Amino acid sequence: MEATRRNVQQRGNKETSERTEPPAQWGRAWEVDWFSLISVLGLLCFAPFIVFYFVMACDQHQCSLSQPLLQLLRGDASLLSIWERTASFSWSAAKIYSVWVAFQVFLYMCVPDVTHKVIPGYVGGVQDGARTPAGLINKYKINGLQCWLITHALWFANAHHFRWFSPTIIFDNWIPLMWCANILGYAVSTFAFTKAYLFPTNSEDCKFTGNFVYDFMMGIEFNPRVGKWFDFKLFFNGRPGIVAWTLINLSYMAKQQELYGHVTNSMILVNVLQAIYVLDFFWNEAWYLKTIDICHDHFGWYLGWGDCVWLPYLYTLQGLYLVYHPVQLSNLHALAVLLLGLVGYYIFRSTNHQKDLFRRSNGSCTIWGRKPTFIECSYRSGDGEVHRSKLLTSGFWGVARHFNYTGDLMGSLAYCAACGFGHLLPYFYIIYMTILLVHRCVRDEHRCSSNTAKTGSATPTPCRTG
């Protein structure tokens, strides 16, 4: 593993006293209380059921979340009858999924990034990650934008020229593909769990609680890798799920065209707004290395299964809903949705850009035409070294902490509002994102309470990870 220890030389009484400070609370918990254990068990039991229920509701009940429950209560259906009507695993879907994952592995591992050499402003190639709890800085291959471009170029070439497969192939195999995604999600999670015990990439960045369920769910290894470059966290966080996000929406659009002879403006809005979000992710993949997903989450079922199943199946519910319920929005409604999505994206991107600019320039920049203000703090990594960090308090970060989350939620609401107001199902995304981002804020508060502000007091200070 390509990693370097960047040690800070400590001299004098001041530095010696800093060694007595407790290490920053990075990553997940060391100990498991009853509430955490119950929460983990709940997620393990209900998250796969939620994915199945939503997809089944669309397949069998036109995306109505209440109809399956009402039929069960009235005795018109049973769990067995629902299961029997659900498409099962198929070897054709397994071949499709295997080719898809293998192709993304090939692009990730074997095709060096050239986009950063030809696209001005794009940061790709080999980049340093953030410091791990053990004090390591890993190197990453950043080529997500290139993988996305190659994949989508081949998709459009097939749709308009080669005709190797139907553009509706993803929708037509949606439920069988779900079983394949589950197999991969559980296999990857189990492998990562076993690997942490038998051959961890870096034992100093492992956390064992002694609770089998919690460790399997939340992960033990911080950055599990196979070989020098295959990083599980970066690959599964970005590929294959997020690359597939826009392809899934394109397949939904093709199915709507096939069924009804036209594509609605709501479907176009969902495709465009979510494509902006996906492209933003890959354009800023190097920046993503410094966010909470990479900097603080260990790799377990939560990320492994979540990236394989939860993300591609529940983040694309709006497009799936519009296949079953095509909605043609009024011009005013469509304009309002577009503006909400674009303004949300502007806030999301501008807030993150301000933080990134401040960090790259070490505060030597201007934000909103002024020199930025900040709080200087220190933290101690697991190797005992003391590091310093500047926390931005200007621009959007002076208006509110994590104002980027506000923009993210505005964009999420726009996706949902594009589907009209006929059903609850497409609004699951904004409900889920609100819970997720509020929970991240709570985690951030807890983790950063150990950082000590160098302002003459030991007041806990906000963290700058997004």
From TrEMBL:
GO MF entry, a single one: 7-dehydrocholesterol reductase activity
Matching InterPro entries: ERG24_DHCR-like (IPR001171), Sterol_reductase_CS (IPR018083)
Reaction(s) this enzyme catalyzes, per UniProt: cholesterol + NADP(+) = 7-dehydrocholesterol + NADPH + H(+); 7-dehydrodesmosterol + NADPH + H(+) = desmosterol + NADP(+)
Gene3D superfamilies reported for this sequence: 1.20.120.1630
GO biological process: brassinosteroid biosynthetic process; cholesterol biosynthetic process
Enzyme's top EC category: oxidoreductase
Subcellular location(s) per record: Endoplasmic reticulum membrane
Transmembrane portions of the chain: 34-55, 259-279, 299-317, 329-348, 412-438
Pathway connected to this protein: Steroid biosynthesis; cholesterol biosynthesis
Major place of residence: endoplasmic reticulum
Membrane topology, record value: Multi-pass membrane protein
Biased amino acid composition, Polar residues: 1-11
Region named Disordered: 1-22
Family statement drawn from the similarity comment of this UniProt entry: Belongs to the ERG4/ERG24 family.
The protein, known as: 7-dehydrocholesterol reductase
